[in-house]
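Final report, section 2: Outcomes. Of the targets proposed, AB hydrolase-1 domain-containing protein is the one most frequently requested by collaborating groups, and we therefore present its record in full.
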Amino acid sequence: MESTQRTSVRNHFVLVHGLCHGAWCWYKVVAALEAAGHRVTAVDLAASGMHSARVDEVNSFEEYSRPLLDAVATAPEGDGERLILVGHSHGGLSLALALERFPGKVAAAVFAAAAMPCVGKHMGVTTEEFMRRTSSQGLLMDCEMLPINNNQGAGVAIKMGPDFLAHKYYQQSPPKDLALAKMLVRPGNQFLDDPVMKDACLLTADKYGSVKKVYVVAKADGSSTEEMQRWMVTLSPGTEVEEIAGADHAIMSSKHKELCDVLIKIVDNLNI
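The predicted structure is given below as tokens.
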């Protein structure tokens, strides 16, 4: 896999994991992109991966997303680096918050089987629709809802069960990646009642809407189905679409080479 860059600009990919996961889930993508000559940063959102906080110690979606917001805020400008944000699953919502805060710093945003909110609706609408569809079909299987308390009051965190991971998340992925996920996933808070999630005016056309967006559809996704993914695309006209056949929800695991090819294609097209 080789990059065909036609300029001296160096691409800096910032990778954002989904709910209950961490930077660890991107290990294949990090290695492949670095081998192709790109700079890569995989972040641990608060109470995720190696981050030291517990899920009940994170009091808001803003606080949860702070590691990403800080990474984008401190990314250098004007030194020949181009920032591309890549979000997976629930991580797409943190991506959206970063795009609204720092639209001028991001060359492109890639939503890989991710929650992609739209201008004019509150961010939580994507999670609410996902939960509506999964609860009516029993797709959450052996996931547990754990009671938690933080500064916003009582709430729940999701703990992904091994059967859910095996049959709805990693069903097309190598067994070693499923085993890794079973060992490393942590309870995650969707922040459904967070004020940021409820604010229909938060995402604006001038900021969030101005950033180039590409949605990567995982066609074998057993969690956020292809239908659900395409529904989100219809809410944001102008979003470019790439498809990866055979990709389960853990697209960075089941089809990491194809995902890297898509990411490099996206940055090469920025040169045209």
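The radius of gyration is 17 Å.
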